Every structure is written in C-alpha cells, then in structure tokens.
Amino acid sequence: xxxxxxxSIAFDAVRSPxxxxxxxxxxxxxxxxxAASFFCDVRVAGPVGDDFGDDExxxxxxxxxxxxxxxxxxxxxxxxxxxxxxxxxNTAHTDDTQLGVFGDFEPKLSQPSRDAxxxxxxxxxxxxxxxxxxxxxxxxxxxxxxxxxxxxxxRESLVRTIGGxxxxxxxxxxxxxxxxxxxxxxxxxxxxxMGPRAVVAKQGEYGAALFTRDAFFALPAYPLETINDPTGxxxxxxxxxxxxxxxxxxxxxDDEGVLRRAxxxxxTMASFxxxxxxxxxxxxxxxxxxxxxxxxxxxxxxLEVVPTA
Amino acid sequence: xxxxxxxSIAFDAVRSPxxxxxxxxxxxxxxxxxAASFFCDVRVAGPVGDDFGDDExxxxxxxxxxxxxxxxxxxxxxxxxxxxxxxxxNTAHTDDTQLGVFGDFEPKLSQPSRDAxxxxxxxxxxxxxxxxxxxxxxxxxxxxxxxxxxxxxxRESLVRTIGGxxxxxxxxxxxxxxxxxxxxxxxxxxxxxMGPRAVVAKQGEYGAALFTRDAFFALPAYPLETINDPTGxxxxxxxxxxxxxxxxxxxxxDDEGVLRRAxxxxxTMASFxxxxxxxxxxxxxxxxxxxxxxxxxxxxxxLEVVPTA
Lengths: 309, 309
Description:
2 copies of one chain form a homodimer. Chain A contains 12 helices and 13 strands. Chain A is an alpha/beta fold. In chain A, α7 (172-179) packs across α8 (184-193), α9 runs antiparallel to α10 (256-273) and α10 (256-273) packs across α12. Chain A binds chain B through residues 17, 87-89, 176, 182-186, 203, 205-207, 209, 215-220, 223-227, 256-257, 260-261, 264, 297-305, and chain B through 17, 87-89, 176, 182-186, 203, 205-207, 209, 215-220, 223-227, 256-257, 260-261, 264, 297-305.
C-alpha cells in the first residue's frame, strides 16, 4: 500500500552540545518519509522554494521517495528553522523560524497522492491538515501529529481534524494539554472520544505508550550512548510506525500485535535518527541494522530473559 | 533470608489535588518494609519519639515486620515532613521538615539485625549509611537509596558509601547529577565504576530502568487511573525489588531473570502505593492483587500479544 505524508520540508540549523550544522535538510515530512521508506512506497507533499535544489531532491529520491507532489514555488524560500539543545537534549529551543513558502501553502494534491491508502498529516496548521484529509478520498488509515502551538491557538479546528483521523501521535504533555486531563490514561481516552481509535503518547527519552480502547502498551526508548541531535525523532517514529502498518495491508491497525510491532519499528527509527544530525544517520542506514535493533528491543523489554540467537 | 532496612520512620502531612492528610505514618523505612513484607522476613531500624504509639507499631506488626530495632527516644519527637503535589504529581514540594529524634540518630543495631543477609540503606546521610553497612557483617546483598541533597552536600561520603553496596536506587536525574554525565547509559556505567554491580534508575511515571554490566532492561510504570499520593513510591519500589531478591536466596542478584522479576515486583508495589495516601493502600493489599498486577505487566510490555489466561 502507498503512504502519503504532507508536512514541512525545511532547512534546519541546529546546535547541540555535540556539534552543529548551519543548514541541512529537515522538516517533519522529510524525516517521516525517509523513515517510512524502509517499509513501503512513500509520497511526500509540501512546498519548497527556489533554494531547494537537486541535492535535496536526491536525498529523498535515493530512498525511493516519490517527490512529484513537492510544490516548488518560483521566487520563494524554503521553510527555515534554527534551534538548539541544552545538555539534557530533551527540549528544543527555537531561535528563529522563517515560514517562507509555507506561509501561503494551499495543498493541491495529485491524483496518485489522493489515492494513497495511508496518510500522515504531519504537524502543520489543523485547517490545512483537514483540507488534505478531505482531498485524500482513498485514505483508509490516517495518522496525525500536532503541537502545543495549535492546541493553544486553534484548538477547535484541531479537535475537528482529530475527529477525522485514526491515529494520533502527540507527546504526553500535549495529550494532557489537549484534554486538560492530568492523568495520561484518562487523557488518552478523552482523545479517543474525539474519534481516533488509538493514541500514541511520545515520551522522548522514556519511549512511547500506545493506548487503544482495549489495550495499553509501553516501550522504552532504545538506550543509546551517542545522541547528537533529537530533531525529527518524533517524525521518524511516526514514519517507522505508519510505514510498517502500511506494509501490513488493510486491517493492520485493528491487530494489536501489528500495532506493537509498529511501535517497535517507530522506536527503532527514532533511535537511529537521533544518533547523528538531521537526516545523516538515516541516509546511511541499512535494513539489516533496523532488523537487528528491532530484535534488541525484545531483549531489553522482556520480563523473561530472551536467549541470544 | 531476612531483610533489614534502616531509614526514616516519620509522620507525614501531604496535600495533593486529590485530597490531604494532616498526620499519617510515613518515612522511607516504613514504605520499604511494608512493601518488602509481602516477600520475606523484614526488620526495620530507625529512631522515633514518644509520639510514636501503639497504632503506628501495629501497622508494621500487622504485616509481620519486626520492630525490635525501632529506637524510641524518651522525650523525643518523631521525624515530621509536610509536603504537597501540584496537578502533575511529579514533584514533591517540601513545606516543612522537622528532624526531631533523627537529628541525633546513631545506629546501634541488635545482633539479629546485624546478621540480616540483605540490607537496604534508605535515604539518610551517607555517613550514617556507612556506619550501618559496617555494623551489618552478615549482609551479602546491600542496596542503597540517596537524594540530590547528599549529592550536593556530602558527595565524597556518598561515593565512599556507594563503593560498599551492590545495588543503587536513584532517580535518573540523580544518576546524572552524581556522575556529571548527561547520557544515562554512560552515567549508570560511571556509578557501577564506583563499585555496585547494578543501578536502578527510577523514572517516576515513566517506570524504571535496570543497568548491569552485561544487560539493560526497562519497564514502564503501571498505567493507573487513580494516583492520589506519590509519596513513598520509590521506597515501595525498592521494598518490592529487594524483598523479592531476598526471597530468592543467595546468588539471586547474579541472575538477570530474577533481577527483571524484581524490577516488576518493585513497579507493582510502587503502583499500589500511589493509589492512596501514605500507607493506606499497601495496608489493605492482598497477595493475590500483587500476583494479578505482576501478570498484567507481561501484557503491557510484551512485543507479542500475550493471550489472556
């Protein structure tokens, strides 16, 4: 099945205690699509400016990501984000944001994108997410990410948009903020009451938790000695998660076992993403490394000791 | 095997968004010994004042905890702590601390306590912890808890004390603070370099992680709809953990499978502790409830869906 992601395509400038990059490819749709590309056919949609060149297209094309719906705006500038991380790496501090072509973005999707069976609405303004959702008449499984900004400034629109999706990916603070419910279990249920069948609460260095009507599952983050740049971890998680779900075909999201493996592929992809700056680690990633780390998750989470193969 | 805990025995006043108690039995040694009492013979040592009466002794005696080494100081007052929690319940805010008899505490243990095979040094001044360790010549497995206060004010003594124990229980911020190492994996290794064979990083609502030389294991917290009072969760965790280890006999701490079950019993006991104020939930707890929740942990952590029995 094919998977479409609509979201930001960006240039990022990032400084962490372990290095910095002045200008590198980033954006939620980029991190998502690179991660998902290991599992299924991926299409990416979003606006870029004249400054988005062959090198950037090549990063996506090298991973087989279809870029037909990247809208290149003549005379425009690509979305730019500058941020930094303190020693604990848990919080991204934004130093500069330049919307560029994203300021006037109006999604106009091609027919093949509208036909994609799986859709990810990366973190953009919820009205735009809903426009995309309405165009994608072929989508049978829809995931959504958002952020505190939209909960603050466009809550009503966000709740409407959430009403039309199957899976919500938010960090745990956002799940609580959206529902004004401090207890995470009750907060996740309140999100499901808005429409979705499942909520993934992302918990950064602590991993992620999956809430469905009938079950709860939690997975720690993979323990890493080297974490250089957490930017894009959440989108890589969603990419691994939805990419794997898409590869399992129709009905996959109803299967608790598939959902748990999706959580594990999501965590696996996020763990690689943070090992280096921007897309650098995922670009040189091999499928065998994914399989190996996926298997490691069994060792670090099993209540019984799992014999080494 | 018998298990000795030395630490604070206290009266607590606690206010949370879900209620308050003016004066109730508390203290690290109390929470620890009640939790451990479900697994093995427990002895508790620490000072109390005249105000510590039959009702308080009865709480411990009802769970079979040996109180011979509770030192009742004539004319003294029992340690008192007053604190409150905000809506997120993650941080205890201290409003008042009165050391009382704890200010002049000098551990003088009875022979049966010195002979205990398993010892838990609850969070008290590290010089005192070391005095206890030296008296306990029969101890073959020693666990220790501490806090940011001692890392700040008595770091050298704490590092010496840690050098003489097997297991360290700290929250993850304290592990980082003690070692001045922001990466948790590297920080835990640095603690093991001080002497211990294992480090348990407590992570509050996110669960706990176990670091040994050869393995890593992480367990989420049990998802709860009702959390009234987090006070004592860490000590209940350590009580379940070490109580179970003690019940498994010599060499238990060398067995990764036993350690993982100890983590699960620790998390189980912590999850009950926080459901009600002070010791209220654990006092009315039944062994079957522990076994049931222990089994639930398998359902919420297994990468494969575990069939319901």
